[in-house]
Amino acid sequence: MSNHLDATAKDAEGKLEAAYGELTGDTGHQIKGKAKQVQASGMHALEDVKQSAKDAAETISDAAGRLADKVT
Fold first, then answer.
1. What pLDDT, on a 0 to 100 scale, did the predictor assign at position 1?
2. How far apart are CA 19 and CA 1, in angstroms?
3. Domain ranges in the chain?
């Protein structure tokens, strides 16, 4: 869960930096802000994939346990 929070913080940081760049006309800050937002999206996606893999492993483990109970 901590990694999702890190990603959310990175996204907020990126939005603030991009907004600052837009207000000041500084394209460097605009680009850096957008890059941080993209990085945050990637971080969220990675955490979602990791959670899906954990869920799938748990489902398989449960199914294997039920099958083993039927066999014995």
1. 60
2. 27
3. 2-71
Tell me the C-alpha distance between 69 and 13, whole Å. 51
**Alpha helices, H only, the chain:** 2-24, 27-71
**CA–CA gap between residue 47 and residue 38 (Å, rounded):** 14
What's the N-to-C CA distance of the chain in angstroms? Answer: 38
The encoded tokens of residue 25 equal 């006309």
Q: Which pLDDT value is given to residue 70?
A: 85
- pTM of this structure: 0.77
19 and 62 in contact (C-beta within 8 Å)?
no
